[in-house]
């Protein structure tokens, strides 16, 4: 045995006897998705620092938030408001102002926008005229020539996604619709408060197909009161349609949402059961794999291409993400920051001529490096060569005992190419991310739009 290998073996032995199972056990119960890192962004007065001394980065993923829904759902934690014509008109004006201000801060001629995502809320709830106006602002403001994917989120409520609307979206460069179907079973659509049937969703999917646009379908499993049999039936059913890309989320009980409050009132047991979750996750995965879907993150499955926007924001090395709109998050120039979530505050800041950024954090060198793997592990592997180029140290050396802990917990394995998630590590991927996160962020919640809003910011 070489000296290095002896040192490695003894370090590993020390770590194995260090009772990692206890130290990290609670992290196996993390349900929320680690989407933003570092998570502890704080109120910020001076935004100028974000845009000073911009580091060279060629690509940007652009996100535009439309926080309106015509029929909001009781389970949803996103920054969304009941649609009103008047509020939207003010909001759209503010979006244009925000884009103009950003263009004064960032030299977009040196950037390539690689992906664009218009999310919400439900952007397809806007009228054709409103979408035409919004998309014209975007097209006038940015060079979308090199964009590889342009997605907009929608909901299959009858009359909301029409042939005319799809034609208009295509004319403005939209290439893909992300449709929130959620369930194929009416009982659960009802529990979720969705105001359409699965047949409506199928008609919308057919229509989108006929316009030759890419499709993602959002699905939720482990919906309150959903039986194991129904999970199987539901995933079987959605897999049997020829959909390019499926996002399958497990239901999360978000504090403070109307559905969580309702079930609290009814004393429904909603304890998270780790073993049950793992069983359901594996069942769903098997069905999707049998139908030709390749899983590339804990939630995303594709028959063909991965979604470029997800690649940009999560896969190592992550691309800068510029978020526009109320409550949008950005990761730019080694800062992570969030816009005002509250609509009035968002609009009034822009009316005063300033960017609506209210919270943020300059990333430390450790944040920058650990972020590579914390978000990168969502793609199940972190390449050692690529990591070392940026971190100047290999994965094993950088994360030290955490790697042994992850191995001991059966969440990852290491080989000569880098770190790889095991089946368990794919299912409990947020645990892998949390363990790789700097110790100061262990058990720190993701920045929660709802909480931020409740703080009255
Ligand atoms: C912004 S919405 C998508 C577009 C559209 N507004 C809709 O609802 O169809 C993003 C997705 O997050 C997922 N989601 C929302 N709340 C969730 C929860 N409590 N648990 C799991 N997934 C959730 C849903 O699948 C939803 O489609
Ligand atoms: S799930 Fe979609 S439609 Fe429902 S409230 Fe959230 S953003 Fe709106």
> What is the CATH top level name of the largest domain?
Alpha Beta
- Major beta-sheet overview: 9 strands, mixed
In order across it, which strands form the biggest sheet?
10-11-9-8-7-6-5-2-12
Q: Distance N terminus to C terminus? A: 60 Å
- Low-confidence parts lasting 5 or more residues at pLDDT below 50? 450-457
CATH topology of the largest domain: pyruvate-formate lyase- activating enzyme
Total domain modules: 2
- DSSP E strands, number: 18
Bound molecules: S-adenosylmethionine, iron/sulfur cluster
Q: What is the tally of helical segments?
A: 20
Percent of residues in helical segments? Answer: 40-55%
Quickly give the structural class: alpha/beta
Mean pLDDT: 90
Q: What form results from the Cα inertia axes?
A: globular
Q: Tell me the Rg in angstroms.
A: 22 Å
CATH superfamily of the largest domain: tm_1862 like domain
How much strand? 15-25%
- At CATH level 2, the architecture of the largest domain is Alpha-Beta Horseshoe
Polypeptide structure, described:
With 457 residues, the chain is an alpha/beta fold. The protein has two domains: 10-37 and 365-441, Orthogonal Bundle (Arc Repressor Mutant, subunit A); 47-314, tm_1862 like domain (pyruvate-formate lyase- activating enzyme), CATH 3.80.30.20. It is 42% helix and 19% strand. The chain has helices at 3-16, 20-25, 48-51, 85-105, 128-141, 163-171, 186-191, 198-210, 228-239, 258-265, 274-290, 308-314, 343-351, 365-376, 384-391, 395-399, 401-408, 423-427, 429-436, 449-454; strands at 42-43, 59-66, 68-69, 81-82, 112-120, 149-154, 176-182, 214-221, 245-250, 294-295, 300-302, 320-324, 329-332, 335-339, 357-362, 381-383, 412-415, 418-421. The strands form four sheets. The chain has a nine-stranded mixed β-sheet with strand order 10-11-9-8-7-6-5-2-12, sandwiched between helices. A four-stranded antiparallel β-sheet has the order 1-15-14-13, with no helix packed on it. Helix 4 runs parallel beside helix 5. The longest helix is centred in the N-terminal third of the chain and has 21 residues, at 85-105. The radius of gyration is 22 Å and the shape is globular. Bound molecules: S-adenosylmethionine and iron/sulfur cluster. The site of iron/sulfur cluster has 11 residues, from loops.
